[in-house]
Design goal:
The protein has strands at residues 3-7, 10-13, 18-25, 33-39, 46-51, 58-59, 68-73, 78-83, 92-99, 113-114, 118-123. The protein is mainly beta.
Length: 124
């Protein structure tokens, strides 16, 4: 069992940056791949980033590639999402998720555990 708690959301102007954190409790964090998803009002939850259990491999959709960076610190049981050059269309609730099978993919149902989300609002 893994519990995930996101933090670091807030309001920022377009072009600004935010760093989200996701703290995990429970055993074997270092064996889980981790993902970030987001959901805007009236839209489906979409994939934002994923990182392998070791942190050596990452995956992003084209919409955030080059602007967002996912990283993790297994010693601190924490995964991060650095978001730069933010755009109003990045406004959403951001969720972190854990995949116990280590696939670090973009498929929502691969992820077993989810945090409660943190709001990110980008104004123009």
């Amino acid at each position: 069992q893994v519990q995930l708690v996101e933090s670091g959301g807030g309001s920022v102007q377009a072009g600004g940056s935010l760093r989200l954190s996701c703290a995990a409790s429970g055993r074997s964090f270092s064996s889980y791949s981790m993902g970030w998803f987001r959901q805007a009002p009236g839209k489906e939850r979409e994939f934002v980033a994923a990182i392998s259990a070791s942190g050596g491999r990452t995956h992003y959709p084209d919409s955030v590639k080059g602007r967002f960076t996912v990283s993790r610190d297994n010693a601190k049981n924490t995964v991060y999402l650095q978001m730069n050059s933010l755009k109003p269309e990045d406004t959403a609730v951001y969720y972190c998720a854990a995949d116990s099978l280590g696939r670090y993919g973009s498929v929502r149902y691969w992820y077993d555990y989810w945090g409660q989300g943190t709001q990110v609002t980008v104004s123009s």
